[in-house]
Design goal:
Elements lengths: L1 E5 L4 H10 L4 E5 L13 E4 L6 H6 L2 H20 L2 E5 L11 H20 L3 E6 L2 E2 L8 H10 L4 E4 L5 E2 L2 E2 H13 L5 E5 L4 E2 H12 L5 E4 L20 H14 L1
Helix pairs in contact: 1-6, 3-4, 5-7, 7-8
């Protein structure tokens, strides 16, 4: 297949780019870049977005750029007659509203518009708490591991009932590759790991890292959900194994 991936240097886009490049012709593009595409595109995977919620609240124009990019992607899919996979967010499963979730709700609705009006087949994936190595390492679990190794404070925005459902990027990628190979058009799927209380994740990180870090509780960030939703797939609960491996690697760097 000829495949285009937006955001191919990000966490999700980068993992899919590497995996799909083994057997397919894959083009990657980031914000502001231009790329020469083939006449025929079989699949577009749209992962690129401004995704830090606090930053989109501070600067709503970042979310508007998400909107305009999604429109351009759907227009490209219409012209190329290609299928699309659109990375939405597990945040849209919650009754919270901010510029980021608004841009993701637009993404989902536009996919349905282009399906009904132009016959573009889509798959919407709502990831939640995906983690692993990336260029910027902005994910919460990464920051906690880095702080724990250095015995720095571990900051939690929320209370002791706050939940997260971490899913390692490798496990997430396996499911997405399965969905591509076993294509069923026009679906919306939520992908998460097992739900944990954040304090339990923090204590696991401290134990595995041999850390003396203190836990610091702060007020929950604006419009950030404190509870998790369930995954549409039964995924492996290997958080301790993934964290132990990650911490071992970090200590060697």
């Amino acid at each position: 297949m000829n495949i285009l991936i937006t955001g191919h240097r990000g966490l999700i886009g980068g993992a899919l780019y590497k995996a799909l490049s083994v057997k397919h012709n894959v083009w990657g593009v980031e914000k502001g870049e231009r790329v020469n595409l083939p006449e025929k595109l079989d699949l577009i995977i749209h992962t690129g977005a401004n995704c830090v919620i606090r930053e989109t609240i501070k600067n709503p124009d970042l979310a508007f750029r998400n909107v305009s990019t999604t429109y351009n992607i759907m227009e490209l899919a219409r012209r190329k007659k290609s299928k699309v996979i659109l990375m939405s967010s597990g945040r849209v499963n919650h009754d919270v509203h901010n510029p980021y979730t608004a841009s993701k709700r637009y993404l989902e609705e536009l996919a349905k518009v282009y399906c009904d009006c132009y016959g573009v087949e889509y798959l919407i994936i709502r990831p939640e708490t995906i983690w692993g190595f990336s260029e910027n390492n902005e994910r919460a679990l990464i920051k906690w591991v880095q702080a724990a190794i250095q015995n720095k404070p571990l900051v939690i925005y929320g209370d002791k009932e706050k939940e997260l459902s971490p899913l390692h990027i490798n496990d997430f990628t396996i499911v997405v590759l399965f969905l591509i190979k076993n294509w069923e058009a026009n679906r919306t799927i939520t992908l998460t790991g097992k739900t944990y209380k954040v304090v339990d994740i923090i204590n696991l990180i401290k134990k595995l890292a041999g850390s003396r870090s203190k836990i610091v509780w702060k007020k929950a960030e604006l419009t950030q959900p404190q509870k998790c939703t369930n995954s549409d797939y039964e995924l492996p609960d290997n958080l301790e194994f993934r964290l132990a491996s990650f911490i071992s690697i970090c200590k060697l760097l």
